[in-house]
Amino acid sequence: MTAPFFNREDEQKRLRRAMKAPGGAMAVIYGRRRCGKSTLLQHVISSPDVYYLADQKEPALQMLDLAAEADKTVPLFSSASYATWDALLQNLNDRLDRRIALCLDEFPYLVQLSPALPSILQKYLDRPGPKKLNLILCGSSQRMMHGLVLDRTAPLYGRALEILKIEPLKAGWIRNALGLEGEKAVEAYSVWGGVPRYWELASSFDGLEEAVGELVLHRNGVLHEEPMGLLLDEMRSAVQPYSLLSVIGQGCHRLSEIAGRLGKPATSLMRPLAQLVDLGYVRRETPFGENEKSTRRTLYKIADPFLLFHFKFVQPNKSQLEVGGVPAVAAKVSKQLSLHVSAVWEQLARDSVPFCAAGGYQWGPARRWWGTGTDDRPMEVDVVAESLDGRAVLVGEAKWSDAVIDPGAARDRLVAKARNNAWARGREVIPVLWVKRGRRNTKVKIQTPDDALDCLK
């Protein structure tokens, strides 16, 4: 089943604008695999544009294949032989009678075997005179795309009109993709995250349990080894980042704990952890109100729901899954899924705050808070945010439970926690409760799964 194409309106607008520029314009698209980069390109380019999906063949075969694609726009273009990329680009430019887009998808594959290609493209873009080719360079390896285009020392640095990082879609779109609402949509998002290809694969199965068993748990499942593939896209060796994700996924969140589990000095882990944060696979969590750069109260959490699911349920049970133990592991997943969803739900609550307009205020980004209150007792608050005008603070709880919650008691508890902290002093306190099921009332603002997902589109 082919999934519909969701969102990306801004990306489409920017690409089309770049492709309408005078000849010699360049746009760059990059981001993790399976997020819809190629689908985006197919929605933007059309005849007579030339689209070429690179692979890992020898350069001579790559040029031959690209020339064959160009035949659709320039008849018999492939009848000539091209010894170099320079010759191919020059001849294609000379034979065109109009401006077109030349899209090189998986551009890093081309560069791996033809390291001079970025300099050749730079020469084409910088040369004087009319140019009929606009370039779109696309790649899944964020590390390589940075090195080829975004690094200050790269030949193509500063040449792009548009640089688009294609992120996973926001959580609200999963309702459209899988036809789910409310808690079922949140449960699905807690497994698949915002990656459109995962949604497309899951839509072919009868429910979340079957999709997880066939796609993720089974040793032949399409997504069984997905995390390793993601890491190999980005790093020369996946051993250390995979190990880091493994221990974080199993509950080690402080740097000292992670280092102790791996038997390595904490200082040796700072760079690989920073890379995982930059890639969006891990997030640094610091208490609300503290300087993120100077505080030592930092936790590391897996940011991507699919990776979190993998390192909670798949990686620790790899040996059992390898010998066909899918039913036993699936039973573990079923038993512990609510706890996993709860962690994702808490983050969705924080993500939704800037868009929820609680109390009539506009809110900045939300964070968690933990520490000692003014009464010297330890305390945690799931969600804390400051209004943009600084006059109010939002305090919230995120509960993924079937238990009935007393709204009045919840409001009093949240207000008391806020008043027990210096960051609430002299400000209006707006309590908000994110719950699995609930009804609106006058005592506290209630946010249900559908309310949160409405904010995240």
Write out key terms for the chains shown:
457 residues; alpha/beta; Rossmann fold; Arc Repressor Mutant, subunit A; Trna Endonuclease, Chain: A, domain 1; 3 domains; 20 helices; 12 strands; 44% helix
Second rung of CATH, namely the architecture of the largest domain = Orthogonal Bundle
**Count of structural domains:** 3
Task: Return the average pLDDT rounded to an integer.
Answer: 94
Which stretches are poorly predicted, pLDDT < 50 over at least 5 residues?
none
* Radius of gyration based on Cα positions: 25 Å
Beta percentage is: 5-15%
Range of helix content: 40-55%
Return the CATH topology of the largest domain.
Arc Repressor Mutant, subunit A
Number of strands: 12
- Main β-sheet, in a few words? 5 strands, parallel
- Across the major sheet, the strand order is 2-3-4-1-5
Write up what this structure looks like.
With 457 residues, the chain is an alpha/beta fold. It has three domains: 9-165, Rossmann fold, CATH 3.40.50.300; 173-347, Orthogonal Bundle (Arc Repressor Mutant, subunit A), CATH 1.10.10; 351-455, Trna Endonuclease, Chain: A, domain 1, CATH 3.40.1350. 44% of the residues lie in helices and 15% in strands. The protein has helices spanning 9-19, 37-44, 59-70, 85-95, 107-113, 117-126, 142-150, 173-178, 182-192, 196-202, 208-217, 226-234, 239-249, 255-262, 270-278, 305-314, 318-322, 326-352, 407-419, 449-455, and strands spanning 26-30, 50-53, 100-105, 133-139, 162-165, 282-285, 299-302, 367-372, 378-386, 392-399, 428-435, 445-447. The chain has a five-stranded parallel β-sheet. Strand 8 and strand 9 form a beta hairpin. It is globular, with a radius of gyration of 25 Å. It starts with 8 loop residues before the first helix and ends with a helix. The model has no long low-confidence stretch (mean pLDDT 94).
